[in-house]
Design brief:
Layout: H1 25-29, H2 35-41, H3 47-50, H4 54-68, E1 72-78, E2 81-85, H5 90-94, E3 96-98, E4 101-102, H6 103-116, E5 119-126, E6 132-138, E7 143-148, E8 151-156, E9 159-162, E10 166-170, E11 172-173, E12 180-181, H7 183-186, H8 188-206, E13 213-216, H9 222-241, E14 254-257, H10 267-281, H11 297-327, E15 334-338, H12 348-360, H13 366-372
Antiparallel strand pairs: 1-2, 1-15, 3-4, 5-6, 5-10, 7-8, 8-9, 11-12, 13-14
Amino acid sequence: MFGLGKKKQPEGRATSNITAVQSSPDAIRIFRPDFWDAAIKSVAVTPETALGVPALWAAVNFISGTIAGLPLQVYRKTSAGRQRVSGGLAPILHDAVNEEMTSFNWRKYTFERVLTTGRAFTFIERNAQGRIMNLWPLEPDKVEVKRQDGRLIYVYGKNTYEAREIIDLAFMMKPDGIGHKGPIMSNKEVIGRAIAATQYGSKYLTNGGVPPFAVTGNFQSGDALRRAGDDLANAVKKAAEENRLALTLPMGLDIKPIGGDPEKNQLVETQRFDVEQIARIYSIPPTFLQDLTHGTFSNTEQQDLHFVKHTLKRWIEQAEQEMNLKLFGRGARQYVEFNVDGLLRGDFKTRMEGHATAIQNGIETPNEAREIENRPALEGGDSLMIQGATVPITQQQQPNGGDDGL
């Protein structure tokens, strides 16, 4: 027990009194401001334990789920621009990458691995003619990446794959171009504090919200001291289980808390700060982690644009370029592209004003605007319009007197 003297008292009901229990400085130290430093060192930080932090769980699911939900389409470059491809690789990327996994689940799994372990690998299965048949995600922990004769190879179990056979997405590469850095292990102190705060809050509530305490009073022996401590601890536990609000103590005994007050330990502030730190790690506004402390109606839509322009764009372009290189090769006329139009649609009034401006200035046709809004095309809606009478541009007459109108 805390503060028990070195001098041992004999058993019996002697009238001499034991000095009241005093909490030692070593015991009190864990409840001082450096409590979190000690707590962080005692936490095992791994991708699995990190997912126990709600903010990190939300960040990983939000980013991976958003990318997985975007339409992934295949296009072919033509002299007139581009043409959407409906056959070949298109249904594999858009619908199902293999007979066991949909495109959504494959992309979500891939980015879950990237955002936790830091890397994801997908094997490209080709037939004898070189046609892509399936895409198979690999377990990142079982993949060994190395160079052989100057070429990058991937060893997975008994199989060895060339770089062109693997879609390789990394959170951040190391300088050697082989290893990688993951967001969790690279920020293990931040994640460790978040894990410690979550575990501490859980243990505090499990104990009925009763903080650690010391029992003080006049005890007649060391065993009596220990018995009193055990009896009181059991009484507090029982009272918490039975939701009792009152607790009786023997005469002469007193309870003194020795710390553990969540408010004094700044538990709430620490968890809120951890949410902001995790948002920084994944480059997303805190409002997407359900932290509306600084969120308002006016800035939330701007944060949507921030997410698409500064966070999602980075991941989408990385994935598009990696797939284009490994699926089609350099200089190919076909390419894949994520469609992010749905994320930038905005409210109905803003969309209608945007379409009206585009139609009146000959930027898009009425049927193109209707297609964006998932409405059927109408006859006569495929012509470009210009401001004025808003008639087809081909019906505009040249002014008399020549091309320059003079």
